[in-house]
Amino acid sequence: MLKIVCAAAIFGITISSVASAQNAAAPPRRGSIVSPASSDIIKELAPIGTLRVGINFNNIVLVQGTPDAPRGITPDLARELGKRLGVPIEFISFDAAGKTFEALKAGRLDIIFLAIEPVRAAEIEFTAPYVLIEGVYMVPKDSPLKNVADVDREGVRIGVNKASAYDLFLTRTLKHATLVRAENGVDLFAKESLEAAAGVKQPLVAYAKTHPDVRILEGRFMEIRQAMGTPKGRVAGAQYLRAFVEEMKASGFVADALKRSNQPDAAVAPAAKN
């Protein structure tokens, strides 16, 4: 898992230059264009005149590259939104979803890219998802656990990244297994010889390829619905953001960005239901 050097310890953030964010190449627009943003919408989404965007480098499906030059679907969407609003972007990079969420609650961010979860929805105006990814389990190679259903039993300890989407989901849904939380759930799984680790499919699969003593269980325990969001109460801005995401899916923008960043296992989310 990629580790980010934190520039501010309390939030674990690294701020890239606005110039590099604005000059980085973004994909061409396709399809219809959402209505121009009014001054009220721009003021809601970028109240200080700069769009402060949280980027979680711990999810390699959504972002690659470096804090100074982020690549992938998340920065591509952020840059396109900045163009639509006519404002500069400040990328603020994190090494965990939970830290991104805490920064938004503290008023440090205007736009966030996180999985939709009830706990987060109390603080965030979410769009519909733009990408769907899978949450899966990893276990020791000789584990007696054979499928996803086997994991939820007494005595099974599952390593998870604290405050991640799958931590929040499993906290709600598990009945017997025990979650063990850390900054890096996979590292804890290996260090403490836990019975399982939970996480996003792609990085766990990549880990398993270089660690022959572990394997990935078939099937998923959850569908992770990745969405854009803005702080609760920014109603006009959120409405614009929702229309923006629907256009990005319908026009092929999201699919193109996933293809360029070599993420074939991530699926473009279907159109939102009215």
Q: Any guess at the CATH architecture of the largest domain?
A: 3-Layer(aba) Sandwich
Sheet of most strands: 9 strands, mixed
Q: SSE order in H/E notation?
A: EHHEEEHEHEHEEHEHEHEHEEHHE
Tell me the structural class: alpha+beta
What is the CATH level 1 assignment of the largest domain?
Answer: Alpha Beta
Compute the number of helices: 11
Helix content: 25-40%
Number of strands: 14
Total discrete domains: 2
- CATH overall fold name of the largest domain: D-Maltodextrin-Binding Protein, domain 2
Bin the strand percentage.
15-25%
On the 0 to 100 scale, the average pLDDT is 90
How is this structure best described in words?
By secondary structure, this protein is of the alpha+beta class. The chain folds into 2 domains: 14-131 and 226-268, D-Maltodextrin-Binding Protein, domain 2, CATH 3.40.190; 132-222, Periplasmic binding protein-like II (D-Maltodextrin-Binding Protein, domain 2), CATH 3.40.190.10. 34% of the residues lie in helices and 24% in strands. The strands form 3 sheets. Strands 6, 7, 8, 9, 10, 11, 12, 13 and 14 form a 9-stranded mixed β-sheet that branches. A hairpin with a 2-residue loop joins strand 3 and strand 4. The longest helix is centred in the last third of the chain and has 16 residues, at 235-250. The radius of gyration is 19 Å and the shape is elongated.
